[in-house]
Queue: 2 jobs
Job 1
Amino acid sequence: MSGFQLRQVTLYVKLLVLMALQGSVILIVDIADEAEFHWQLADRLTQAGADVALQSPVNSTELTARVKALRQSGQRVLGVVADPTQPSEVLALMQSVIKTLSRLDTLIVLVPDMPKHFLALGPDELRHWTYHQALAAITVCQAAARELVGQAQPGRLLLLSFTDTEAAPHPVPSSFSMLIGSMALELKAFGISVSGISIARDSATDCARAVTAFLEADLPTTGQYLSLDGALFEVAA
Amino acid sequence: MSAPLAGKHCLVAGGVHQLTGVMLKYLQQAGAATSIAFDPLEGSQAIALVSDTQVDVARMRALDFSSARMLQSQVMSFEPLDTLIWLPRWYGLSAFLESSSADWQQALERNFEQVVYTLQAVTRLFIAQSQGGRIIIVSLLPAQHPHPDSSVLAMSLSALQTLSLRAAHELRSHHITVNTVVAGWSQSDWSYPVTEVFDPSPQGLATNIAAACAFLASDSASHMTGSSLTVDDGYRLHMRTRSTLDQNLSKVTSPVRA
């Protein structure tokens, strides 16, 4: 293959990848309080051609400003204030997305992984993670899955769990890995894929790029829980 | 049977069901003194179980699993303890799309939050006793292998398993081991809901689960921590075949409640 032909093929593949998210509607719910990652991911997804809905727990000037900035990409961007710990607000969030953007294709939930310590883990911290974060993520996934099933078309649930690499010198499975597996088994019949990605907190920019690449690649995978490391960066290159 | 647990005091805590009775009896036959700890609302079930099983229990304790502070105070008053064996308190099955908020709340409370409080309280007792200790958590196969209709169970038990691995690492310096026994189906019949491991519990399988716990409580397992023993007749190997998965998906029917 000549150099010219190789460049043509590379450009064609890049265009195919770019088109993978064109017109796709993606909702990002941030339960991990990872605002910077939230915005960077939304930015990358709109640059990749997706319409994006952003959930925020509070109505702020920052949300308004960010939505306005994201709209510069030419994509539809919606900002919705909703408390993910409240089932009624989660339902209203889904309805708002459908009403404004006509449908939902992918849900991305940002959630912190379990606190790293055991004996020092106090009741307040434990309860916060269990009922305000983990349970909220489950509620959001359930609402989105019901919406996707109702739409009777393929969809995706992607759960991003954030971890502190310094505090975890030894690898343990994510507390969400079996949830992802069980959901994947049950939702496969509806054409809904479920995946999880574990993200290190100290690499937001690189991780946003890699998550976008993962979505663009549209791999036929479900029930998998991936740790974000250098391998995914090659997909984005 | 020899007495590998002679001189040891084992506390069986958490769920009160048929497996609890089998566990108490087996531990006693292995030479251990046994106690049982349960939620106050399950007191009459616990009394009936001990009576039916005809096992000689040293202590029957109603503990407030929902309050970390109260539980700590109750546990610190215990006589010397060597082993804690925790049995699940919530073991329902339901489709993910149909599972209710109440199911999730209850499963996370009973299989995760309250277990963490109990493990922490007993750990502090072990540390105060300065002679190490054994923590054994009985779990179910969906905590390690995805299975239809088990998302609530899987999430609550796998969260506990993740935390138990961290506890195992953290407590090594105190000579406290933390291990898990994962129960699954028995080969005689793979068609019943996995939650029937607890009640009604197939006799051979229940005895095997108790035997696995007794091993982990014995001196023979003093260098094991962060480990997981699976008692399932190899089901987790068999379930990976497509035909088995399809069979299981078709067999799932109504929810089973604890």
Job 2
Amino acid sequence: MNLYQAYADQGVVVWAIATPGEGSESEAAVRDFAEALGITMPVLLDDGGLVHAQWPIPGGADAPYPQEWIVGTDGDIAWFDREFDLDEAIAVIEAELAESDTEP
Amino acid sequence: MTLLLLVLTACAGRSEDVKDNDDTAPDSADTTDTADTPDTTDTTDSGDDTATWLALPAGCVAPDALGLDPVSPVGRYDSRTDGLFVEIIDVDVRDGVAWTVGQGGLTVVDVSDPEAPTLVASENSDRWHKVEPLGGTYAAATHRDRGMTVLSVAEGRVSRGRTFSGIGEEGLLARDGRLYVTSRTEGIRVYDVSDPGAVEPVTTVPGLGNPWEISGGEGEHAWVADASLGVVPVDLSDPDAPVIGTPVPLPGASHALERDGWLYVAAGGEGVVVFDVFDPTRPIEVGRVDTGGSAIVLAEAGGVLWVAAHESFVALDLGDPSAPAPLGHQLASEYALAVGTDGRHGVVGNWTKLDVWAADRAAASPELDLDADRVTLPADGGAVELRLTNRGGGTLELVGAEPPDPRVAVSASSLVVAPGESALLRLSFAADGAPLSGDLCLATNDPDGPRLLLPLSAGDPEDPVGEPAPDFTLPDLEGGLHTLSEQRGHPVFITYFATW
């Protein structure tokens, strides 16, 4: 199931973030990768991983990729995983959407 | 999800030596580098084995004589007190009235008495990205997916006038009876707003990449901050026929403000970039000023340049306009995503609050800015380094420290930090297997907070759920910018991936 296609119209934001190193050479690699996979969601560039280092990643910033997060409607982290569990991710997204429906 | 399956396969053998930012790390002695923020969970040495670490005196006692806080609060309006919830991402003040927009709509606030800002009117059915007052009771507002709408206020109510449809409209500048709207798809759209009750389109001039905002000083040129192109001069000598000039590349440019031949550009992690634009067709960069955070928007009043930098804002003294000097710094209680001015004060958009601040150019006091608000020490022992920067005009002194626990030692690369300079604070932890949790108390001569409490814990964060996500603005492959805090109210699924 494609998370982006399934949930975009319910207001769920889906981003893929890459952490290229210095220089446009790495950015080109990200671009090629995204095109090869036919990625439709926004691919953000976290140059040098400066933003990445600010996340409270279990295992530290050097933990292996990928790292998935769901940020809840209130701005707090609602979920984190390294072994991507689609069912769990969907459950958290559905819960966040249900909660935001009841907000004023 | 195809992407993730491929990535999981490709990255299965990833080892820990690949994600190495050391090549991009500055020398620890380079105190003016804004691009590198020390990783708070970094267990490796900063790389400089010859650094001298000075122990801080024990004890956390504020010095007796403190200077005056250069930046002080004057007044606040919180829209939540009126049952509204506008999350401010743009503020513009004209004739004592602040127009604020964001997710949740438009809120108009009377700031003619800056100590007591009061609500004039509000409309909460929509979201807007930018607003520009047109004079009198009128303003124009843009939405990236809808276009530009004219709004007016009468008897406590907001009415909508015409909407001029468009995709990618955002930046707004009203000047000499004309409104210039920048668009990611169309370039610059010009409207006749000499009678704001009867706005008419004049022309559209193609060009531009990903324009974020357009602003104009006194001269013939306006300036577009463009995420793809950088800083773009626009010749308005014929107001009905803008001529888009040659851009100066500057990644992350989000707002350009001109004063007396000097151009100040908010450029995210680069802070404020200063250009000599006495010849607007040939801008010459003269310097960069580190503001901390991510510089987004600027406003100038009385020789003070206010910079909204995401979760904090700074005040810079323009006594030497070519070299803005540190004056003051303030952590916003929530966010500082927008700033305007009433001609005397900085008017900051602090999420649902509008905060009016004063800056005292005569107060040369230090302002401590630490690059972390909590620290996780390595569970097995080791050290963490934080950067502290003095964003005030007076010298900062580290007077003492009191760790929560005898296993933590505190030292610094310098106990004295000059205005605008940085030093490193080193926290070392002698682990013994027992958990650590408590506050480090740091005493300095910063009048705005002479005793700073910094929560410490040891061990890797086991469960990040419930922690606030770090706010950020990052570009995508097309040069568009995405800000996490602007997604409040929507769940955001983020996958960090690698290409190998």
